[in-house]
Amino acid sequence: MLLPTLTALVLSQAPPSLTSLSEQSDWKRTGRYAEAEGLCRAFPKAFPGKARCDTVGLSPEGRPMVALVVSEDGTLTADAARRKQRPVVFFQGGIHAGEIDGKDAGYWLLRDALQGKVLPGALKGVTAVFVPVFNLDGHERFGPNHRPNQVGPEEMGFRTTAQNLNLNRDYAKVDAPEMGMLLTYLHAWDPLVYVDLHVTDGAKFEPDVSVAIEPQKSGPPALAALGLKLREELFTGLVAQGHQPLSFYPSFVKDDDPTSGFTYGVPPPRFSHGYWSIHHRFGVLVETHSWKTYAQRVKATRDVVEGLLRLVARDGAALQAAVKAEDQKATSGQVREVVLAWENTPKRETLAFKGYAYTRAPSDISGQTWIRYDETKPQTWNVPFAPDLQPALRVTLPTGGYVVSAAHAAWVAPRLTAHGIAFQRLTRAVPAAPVESFHATGIQFREQSVEGHQGLTAKGDWKADTQGLPEGSLYVPVAQKNVQLIAHLFEPSGPDSFLAWGFFNAHFEQKEYIEDYVVEPFARELLAKDPAVKAAFQERLKDPGFAKDPHARLRFFAQRHPAWDERFGLYPVYRVARAPEGLAAAK
């Protein structure tokens, strides 16, 4: 019995294998989540003092979200990185769990780096934080048919979570428990660069990877210049490695029509790199091309992350200095305007894009135009491209901040905490506070729900007002580094505001009514005694739609009745010029 015992002892002390199923299968397959978790926990054993495996939290189905932290000099915690002013690169795979290139590329790269095969010395100057799989439960919805327009691996996970939520639409609203966990961890590390690893859908063409970096064409000029430099130097390295990188997401302006060309876009903060870029840091979206083999895609993903780590290790001090300068402007209250949406400028140029020969013809099946590509015939498409951006929606901030009514504090507060946004609570009611309030003059509910929300568009303006602020209301000052996100969340016109996502819909639904037989005599009385109302009514009657609508005509008077609900259409968030009295730290 001695030999088996000695063998077991030797095996228990031997370094664990850090080779994934993907490598073992020559990039034909990918492992289940148990392998991803096991690899994370194996790294610290194989590289003591240079790797750490954190458990971020549990998914709704009880799986532990893990993160591998790597640094050659032992800077393995967020506090240690902050004390050393260490630049951090945070990258993640599997936010869409069928697009799983990042998981296998990340472990492959970090193992080789710690073994001294690549990135010599880089991880002494930068800490890498790697979440191999963000969408844990979706990853384990495993099968061969989830992405029919993707070449490998043989089986993969699913796009959405077990709650059927798309995590890369959830950054601003934070519905998914996974998002709350990830954001708390992300903000604790406060990385200089945040990289989200995906695979495209769509057309067939030659370029194998797109890398969108912001700020580059949006954001503060100093950071945009550095983002452009980062992208250009990264692409120089990628081209030398044989890649054909794109700086924009390659989605046609018109589906399945290459002649419509492409545009450069900056997404709102529901998306990962849009979210991080408005924090005055660098958000990076990596999209390998779905029609390349799994081996090609994993290699492209690895090369992008390796290049970013190398550049940040070299230029981290300069990048951090620029970020610190923008933080100082925000925390001192110098940021007075925020851009909530971008659009392309009228400028168009012709882009020589490497695609394939194709035909477009009517389909006898669908009745629509059907496109077919011939991958044996490379072809250069000369197509229109819109490369530049300009602000489409800009708002001016209050000098103090926003007050969220106590009635909504219970669900707003944890979201603010996940976002790393500072706020305080009112310890006593303020009966009459000078505020700016937003009273909707027009509302439009979205016909179809998105991510479980019925969206809302509300027209109106902020106006000087006096409102009571109940005890327990939240005060969110704008003089903090997350100022842009605060504006996105609370300005009603923002595409990713809480209002736009439908969190406040009940306030824009009429709950109390006045019977028509009460309004009829009131209308006659009002017309008889108030010439201004009479003139306004006569003017409205010039609108044929109004004139033919009995309900609209009576509503005109019902809104002027003393019983009308003055809070109907009132947004329960106010803007204030200064902090209210009676504030205490949030708990």
Q: Which helices and strands occur, and which strands form pairs?
A:
Elements: H1 2-13, H2 21-24, H3 33-46, E1 51-58, E2 64-70, H4 78-84, E3 88-92, H5 101-114, E4 127-131, H6 136-139, H7 177-189, E5 193-199, E6 209-214, H8 221-240, E7 245-246, E8 262-263, H9 272-277, E9 282-288, H10 294-331, E10 337-344, E11 349-362, E12 369-386, E13 389-396, E14 401-404, H11 409-418, E15 424-426, E16 430-438, E17 442-445, E18 456-459, E19 462-469, E20 474-477, H12 483-490, H13 516-529, H14 531-540, H15 544-547, H16 550-558, E21 573-576, E22 583-585
Parallel strand pairs: 3-4, 3-5, 5-9, 6-7, 8-12
Antiparallel strand pairs: 1-2, 2-4, 6-9, 10-13, 11-12, 14-20, 14-21, 15-20, 15-22, 16-19, 17-18
Helix pairs in contact: 5-10, 8-10
Q: Which features would summarize this protein structure in a list?
A:
disordered N terminus, eight-stranded mixed β-sheet, globular, 22 strands, 24% strand, 587 residues, alpha+beta, five-stranded antiparallel β-sheet
Would you write up a description of this structure?
The chain has 587 residues and is of the alpha+beta class. It is built from 16 helices and 22 strands. It has an eight-stranded mixed β-sheet with strand order 1-2-4-3-5-9-6-7, with helices on both faces. A hairpin with a 5-residue loop joins strand 1 (51-58) and strand 2. The radius of gyration is 28 Å and the shape is globular. The relative contact order is 0.10. The model is unreliable at 1-15 (pLDDT under 50).
